[in-house]
Amino acid sequence: QVQLVESGGGLVQTGGSLRLSCAASGRSFSSYGVGWFRQVPGKERELVATINPNNRKIYADSAKGRFTISRDNAKNTVFLQMNSLKPEDTAVYYCSARYNDRYWGQGTQVTVSS
């Protein structure tokens, strides 16, 4: 079992940056694929970026060129660096890890003011 805790969300102005962290408990975290998702009220949760155990990265079109996903397996942590933030990036951001089963964190709010 893996427990995930997100942090780093907050309020930022348009054009600003935030760095989200997803800290995992449990062993063998390096074997997990990890993704960042986001959700706004009334809409489905959407994929933002993923990183697999071989460090292969996939980004949603909305994240390409602005967001960077990375992992530090020694610290059991995955990061999402978000630059050039826009109001439409406002959402609750969730970290998810998958290895056979999928696990979710509790989410962290990101609010981008115009």
Protein described:
This protein has strands at residues 4-7, 10-13, 18-24, 33-39, 46-51, 57-59, 67-72, 77-82, 91-99, 101-104, 108-113. The chain has 114 residues and is mostly beta strands. Strands 2, 4, 5, 6, 9, 10 and 11 form a seven-stranded mixed sheet that branches. A four-stranded antiparallel sheet has the order 1-3-8-7, with no helix packed on it. A hairpin with a 4-residue loop joins strand 7 and strand 8 (77-82). The mean pLDDT is 96.
Question: Which features does this protein show?
Answer:
seven-stranded mixed β-sheet; mainly beta; 114 residues
Record the SSE blueprint.
Elements: E1 4-7, E2 10-13, E3 18-24, E4 33-39, E5 46-51, E6 57-59, E7 67-72, E8 77-82, E9 91-99, E10 101-104, E11 108-113
Parallel strand pairs: 2-11
Antiparallel strand pairs: 1-3, 3-8, 4-5, 4-9, 5-6, 7-8, 9-10, 9-11
- End-to-end separation in angstroms reads 40 Å
What would you call the structural class?
A: mainly beta
Fraction in helix: under 10%
Overall shape = globular
The radius of gyration is 13 Å
Strand-residue proportion: over 45%
As an assembly, this protein is: single chain
Main sheet attributes: strand count, strand direction, barrel closure: 7 strands, mixed
- Residue-averaged pLDDT: 96
Compressed to H and E, one letter per element, the order equals EEEEEEEEEEE
Low-confidence runs (pLDDT<50, min 5 residues)?
A: none
Count the DSSP helices.
0
What is the number of beta strands?
A: 11
